[in-house]
Each structure stands twice: as C-alpha cells, then as structure tokens.
Write a structure and sequence with these properties.
By secondary structure, the chain is an alpha/beta fold. The protein folds into three domains: 2-227, 4-Layer Sandwich (Metallo-beta-lactamase, Chain A), CATH 3.60.15.10; 246-342, Oxidized Rhodanese, domain 1; 345-442, Oxidized Rhodanese, domain 1 (3-Layer(aba) Sandwich). Helix content is 30%, strand content 18%. It has 15 helices and 21 strands. It has a six-stranded mixed sheet, with helices on one face. Strands 17-21-20-18-19 form a five-stranded parallel sheet. The chain has a four-stranded parallel sheet with strand order 13-11-14-15, with helices on both faces. Helix 1 links the parallel strand 3 (25-29) and strand 4. Helix 3 (142-156) packs across helix 5 (203-211). The longest helix is centred in the middle third of the chain and has 15 residues, at 142-156. The radius of gyration is 23 Å and the shape is globular.
Length: 443
C-alpha cells in the first residue's frame, strides 16, 4: 500500500493519497484545489487516481475534487447525506472501496457536519474534536450536530481498538477546533488517554465542553461550504497570475481593486500604498485574507520577489479567484508612486505605555477568546480579528487606536484593516501581548 499525507501549514489542512501498488489504483482524500502534487506523486509511484473522497463539505478551503476529476476522470465520493450540483458516488456506514489488495471501509462520523468521514476528517482531531457550530451543513443545527458528534466520538470512534491509527484533516491553528495539536497523526488509544473530548461523559457535558471557547469562524467559511457543493469553474493545474504594468495597477485600483500587501510587517510599515491590507505570505495568509476581504473583491498582489504565484495560489485555495495580477518590483513601484505611499506606526511595549500617558487611547485586542486567559492590556476592548471588519463600527475612528494580538503578526493585519476603512491614527504593538507581558514580568 502507498500512503502519503500532504499537510498545508498555512491552512493547517491535511489531505491523503492512498494507493494499491498491485492494481495501481489510488484515491485522494480531502484534496486541496492546487492538485499538481497529487498528480506528480501518483505518476512517480505508478498509480492511477480513480476516486476522490471528501470527508465532508469543507468550510475553510475549496476542495480540489472537481479539478482532480477533470484531470484524471476519477469519480467523486461523499457521504450519503451530501447533496451536490455534480454527480457523486454516495457512501454509507460499512461500505467498502476496493482498490485491489487495499480495501477502504467507510465509517460514518457525523457531528462536525452530517456527511461521512474516511480517516477521521474533521470529526476527531489530535487533541480535539470538530466543532459543531459551523454553518457548513446548512439546515442542521449546532445542537443536532453536537449530539451526532457525541455519538461519533464516544461510541463509534472510541469503540475502535487502541492501536487504530488516527489521521485527521486539520492540525494546530485551524479554526475548525480550539485545542488542535501540532502532531499530524495519533492512535485511538492515545486520544482516549489525552483528548478532553474522548473521556467518558454524559451528552450534555460533552456539548458544553466542545462548544465553549471556540474561535469565531471567518466569514468566508460559509462561502466555501456552499461553493464545495456547487458545479464551479475548475482551477487548471499550473495556473498563474500575471505581472501588471503601472498603468494596469492604476486602472485596477481606480476600478475598486484592493491591494493585498503580502510583504512582512516591517517592510509594510516602512512604506506601503495607502489603503493596502498587510497579510504576509509567510503565515496563515489564505485564512486571514478571508477575514478581511470578500470573495468578490478584485485583488492586486504586492508580494516579495518570487512569492507572487504562491500568494495567488493561497487565495485560490479559499475560492478567492479575482487576483487581477501582481506588482513586479514592489519597492521600485513605491518609489515611483511616492505620493500614494504612507508609513505604518508600530509601538514597542514601552512606547505604548508612554503614548498612553495623557492620551485617550483606544486599545483593541484582536486575539481569539481562548487566548484571553493569559490576560489583557489595561482598558482594552476585545474584537477578534475574524470579526474586526464587521464590528469596526463599534470603535471610534477619531481616537488614537492601538491594536495588539499575541505576537505581532495579526496586529499588523488588523491595524491595516482599520486604516483602510478610515481610522487615521492606528498603531500596532511589536511583540504583541507576549512582549508586553514579558516586559512587565521583568520590571
């Protein structure tokens, strides 16, 4: 048997290629939209992809089932509860997928969504379980999904032998859960011992535990969940975005395109186009863009040299397909258009305290709820980054505003978002809450 896991750190997402080396038949589970790696690996190992399995309708990325079917002629499989605009093979509990010597057996594991799980999908993670409150399965309530999840975890999955290996669809950082491990595989026995949601408990206690403290879901989740049901335009393998001339950039901006500046926060703060959003390509770019832009926003990319296509692929993974193109040689462009360039204020913890003296600062904590257990800056208001665009109206744009997160990556994003909607005096905190807390611990 050939078995390979493909893990995207930027989305904390795992997919799998499973093949029978005697028959040369293979299936891909939970593929991402850029399918080139699956095709190359299958060819390198003499495998033919005959099927594509999705454990559920994903909300945090656009699945590559249509792309793989178009490239290979493979069938697409979902659980029997799934309703799609395209033809699928429906699988139920106990169904078997015969690849030759390798046979896959389906176990229905509803709860995160009501479809099925091959491997464990988003039902059981390492250290956590799938959240039942996402709107990935329209028409099913969080309470109903939570009770399905209880049965899935406590009876079905915990009924498997301890030595059963667990391969989930996500890891640490995913908004599909709150306590996901950095480990990418485990066993049922290990989860039985260490996973809070796998301990014996009553249904009501389970519901209370798994729903408490969940991070807010980015708004694009519903868009992706719906898109994954539809017959949509496929992304062609090897797709690229093109370099734009200065005149094309000007026309795109005049037509309402948004600038995603994917350089790091230090470069961005030194000089960027007025109104640009800073979402560095070196982090959770796709998920974060989904928090600050809408799917139909046209985008001009300003990325580090050599990272332009990677930035565009990351947007495509969440169905943001309106990247007009990229700005070649960003620094030269900014010099040539200096009248459109502004700087961003970033404060050290010491500078923040000095600025707060005698000033009516508005301090905004954009971390998730679970992160607040460490504490908050004095007087801060809490607006998670995933909600900042929708809740910016709750803040006063006329007051000097300081934004902070845990370590400083998200705060540059949040500060740039507030500037883009009219806040005129916005800074973010270098080192975030961790830097501020460390300074106070040593004082």
């Amino acid at each position: 048997m050939y078995f390979a896991q493909y893990y995207l750190d930027c989305l904390s997402q795992a997919s799998y290629l499973i093949g029978d080396e005697s028959s040369s038949q293979a299936v891909v589970v939970d593929p991402r939209r850029d399918i080139e790696e699956y095709l190359a690996d299958a060819e390198a190992h003499g495998l033919r992809i005959v099927g594509v399995l999705n454990t559920h309708f994903h909300a945090d990325f656009v699945s590559g089932h249509l792309e793989l079917a178009a490239a290979t002629g493979a069938w697409i499989g979902y659980g029997r509860a799934a309703q799609t605009d395209f033809e699928v093979r429906a699988f139920g509990d106990g169904d078997r997928i015969d690849l030759g010597d390798v046979v896959l057996e389906v176990m229905e594991t509803p709860g995160h969504t009501p479809e099925y799980g091959v491997l464990t999908g988003d039902a059981l993670f390492i250290g956590d379980v799938g959240r039942p409150d996402l709107l990935a399965s329209i028409g099913v309530t969080a309470d109903e999904l939570g009770r399905m999840l209880y049965d899935t975890i406590q009876r079905k999955l915990m009924g498997l032998p301890d030595e059963t290996r667990v391969f989930p669809a996500h890891g640490a950082g995913s908004a599909c859960g709150k306590n996901l491990s950095t480990e990418r595989q485990s066993t049922i026995g290990e989860q039985r011992r260490t996973n809070y949601a796998c301990q014996p408990m009553a249904e009501e206690q389970f519901l209370a535990l798994v729903t408490a403290g969940q991070p807010p879901a980015p708004e694009y989740f519903v868009y992706n969940a719906v898109l994954n049901r539809k017959e949509r335009e496929s992304r062609k393998p090897g797709s690229t975005v093109r370099a734009l001339s200065p005149e094309e950039v000007s026309r795109a901006l005049a037509a309402g395109a948004k600038v995603i500046d994917a350089r790091d926060a230090a470069e961005f703060s030194a000089g960027h186009l007025r109104g640009a959003l800073n979402v560095p390509v070196d982090g959770r770019m796709a998920e974060t863009v989904g928090m600050v832009l809408k799917p139909d926003d046209a985008v001009v990319l300003m990325a580090p040299a050599g990272e332009e296509q990677e930035a565009a692929v990351r947007l495509a993974r969440i169905g943001y397909d309106r990247a007009v193109g990229f700005v070649p040689r960003p620094e030269a462009y900014l010099i040539d258009h200096s009248d459109q360039v502004v700087r961003a204020s970033r404060l050290t913890p010491s500078q923040l305290e000095a600025a707060a003296m005698g000033c009516d600062l508005q301090v905004v904590d954009i971390r998730n709820a679970g992160e607040l257990e460490d504490g908050m800056l004095p007087g801060a208001v809490h607006v998670p980054l995933a909600q900042l665009a929708a809740r910016a109206g709750e803040l006063d744009p006329s007051r000097p505003t300081v934004v902070y997160c845990a370590g400083g990556w998200r705060s540059s994003v949040g500060a740039s978002l507030l500037r883009s909607v009219g806040f005129t005096d916005v800074s973010d905190v270098l080192g975030g809450y961790a830097g501020w807390a460390a300074q106070h611990a040593s004082a």
